[in-house]
Design brief:
Blueprint lengths: L7 E4 L5 H12 L3 E5 L13 H12 L4 E4 L6 H15 L4 E3 L15 H31 L6 E6 L2 H5 L5 H21 L4 E8 L4 H6 E2 L16 H8 L10 E5 L2 E4 L17 H11 L9 H7 L6 E2 L1
Parallel strand pairs: 1-2, 1-4, 2-3, 4-5, 5-6, 6-8
Antiparallel strand pairs: 7-10, 8-9
Helix pairs in contact: 1-8, 3-4, 4-6
Length: 310
């Protein structure tokens, strides 16, 4: 395991599931931890300090250092307080893992404004706000002449990179997070900060509510949330300083660096297209039509197994 001794990390949504696995793995590698979790229900309501405190207890029992944080990551001022807590308690910040999220699945024609706003807010603003404040800290350190090796790990989803029926709000937020990763990576590279992203597959509260998950795991469970943590630890190592702006689809032992939007079918003309001519070319090139293959096909192509939507 790469050594993260002396580093300070924040993991949001770390009270359960993938976030908890991230926090435990980072602490095992030597990082001091801020364990953030609002303790809300899957749909985002309520608040409970217990999950974060329990993970802090696990880390401390294993000999690590950790503190709990109950801020709402979608609250701009709250996200700033979370970053400040790391600085106040441990003296620095090196790693930010944005993982917190909620789920309010609904078919598009039935989705309410609140269901859209709540999911977009927690996922997308909940990535922007902590990253914004962490980035300001790292920029200040870089301008002061410090050798910064900052890390941001974001959390997208197969629903975001491949699309999934019934998750217009969640998938749109997760797709935006992948785009946010690309832009943040380009902006923050000059300050010594890398920004990468996971599209994880794991057995969590979110996936169990949305999918029929295979249980024929045998000796190795590809949907164990802990399978994601080694990817995070590896990306946080100093040796990974040159790896940034990547989105990694993870299923068990299959880690696929996705290409995302790439050059595709080109329709080229020496002058402005005539609509009739372009239509004829579209029909000729796509005689059977063309449509997104969907999440299952995308996951299988990236090395994952099929899930069935409930």
């Amino acid at each position: 395991m790469p050594s993260l001794a002396g580093k300070v990390a924040i993991v949001t949504g770390a009270g359960r599931g993938i976030g908890r696995a991230h926090a435990l793995a980072l602490a095992e590698a030597g990082a001091k931890m801020i364990v953030n979790d609002l303790g809300a229900a899957l749909s985002g309501e309520g608040q409970d300090a217990t999950p974060a405190q329990q993970v802090v207890g696990e880390i401390e029992a294993a000999g690590g250092e950790a503190a709990a944080n109950g801020e709402n990551v979608a609250d701009f001022a709250g996200a700033e307080r979370m970053i400040q807590q790391a600085l106040d308690e441990f003296g620095s910040l090196d790693i930010l893992v944005n993982n917190a999220g909620i789920l309010r699945d609904r078919m598009l024609v039935n989705m309410t404004e609140d269901e859209w706003d709540a999911v977009i807010g927690v996922h997308l603003k909940g990535h922007f706000a902590p990253t914004r404040h962490a980035a300001a800290y790292w920029r200040e350190r870089s301008k002061a002449g410090d050798d910064v090796k900052g890390r941001v790990i974001n959390t997208s989803s197969p629903s975001g990179v491949f699309g999934n029926v019934g998750q217009a709000n969640y998938g749109a937020a997760k797709a935006a997070i992948a785009g946010f990763t690309l832009i943040a990576a380009q902006e923050l590279q000059r300050y010594g900060v890398t920004v990468n992203c996971l599209a994880p597959n794991a057995r969590t509260r979110m996936t169990e509510s949305a999918f029929e998950l295979p249980n024929d795991a045998g000796d190795f469970d590809p949907l164990d949330p802990a399978n994601m943590a080694p990817v995070v630890v590896a990306l946080c190592a100093d040796e990974a300083q040159g790896i940034t702006g990547q989105v990694f689809h993870v299923w068990g032992g299959a880690v696929n660096a996705l290409r995302g939007w790439d050059a595709g079918e080109l329709f080229a003309s020496d002058e402005r297209w005539d609509a009739d001519a372009l239509l004829a070319e579209l029909v000729e090139r796509f005689p059977e039509g063309v449509a997104p293959p969907g999440m299952i096909a995308g996951m299988q192509a990236a090395g994952g197994r099929s899930l069935r939507t409930k």
